[in-house]
Amino acid sequence: MNIYDVLRHEHFVIKAYLKKIHDLGERKPVTRQRQFLQLQSLLIAHAAAEEEIFYGPLRGHDETDALSRQARVEHDLVGSLMEVIAGLEPGDPDWTAYFAVLRETVENHMRQEEKTLFRKAEAVLDSETELRMGEEMLLVGKGREAMAKVEIQDPPGSGSRSLH
Q1: pLDDT tens digit string along 27-65?
Q2: The domain spanning residue 136 has which CATH number?
């Protein structure tokens, strides 16, 4: 698979998480929080791999430099939004408001990346490089998939959550 196919698949998975969390609404705050923590792990790992494997080689090219830098800044913005959400109680109405902004930001980022950056990257990268990058993303992605399946459980007798 080339880099574009791998990224489109990862974007599909991320969109599914965003929709699932949105659809839970405020009626199941613990489930919503658990799903958010999984999404957060997935997004952090995805962004780091994407920046290293995909954006890095696009820097310095007239066609892709500004777009790859803008995408990295959007990753920073998403990271900041996730930090705020993680600090809120899942039943707090602000949680829902921040999540709506996060969802809109992530979906817009992915749409622009697939529509504009991919097209311009195709003019810069050769097919061999695109395949190599795709393989690298797949290798790193196996770890992200495992992280996304982490279960959050309350330890007996405590109100806090821990990762297992």
Answers
A1: 889 999 999 999 999 999 999 999 999 999 999 999 999
A2: 1.20.120.520
Give the whole-angstrom CA distance, residue 86 versus residue 91: 12
84's tokens: 């705020």
Structural domains of the chain, count = 1
CA distance 38 to 150: 7
Neighbours of 120 (CB within 10 A): 18
Task: Tell me which DSSP letter residue 116 carries.
Answer: I
CB 160 within 8 Å of CB 154: yes
How confident is the model over 102-120, as pLDDT tens digits? 999 999 999 999 999 999 9
Q: Is residue 142 in a domain? A: yes
CA distance 55 to 154: 38
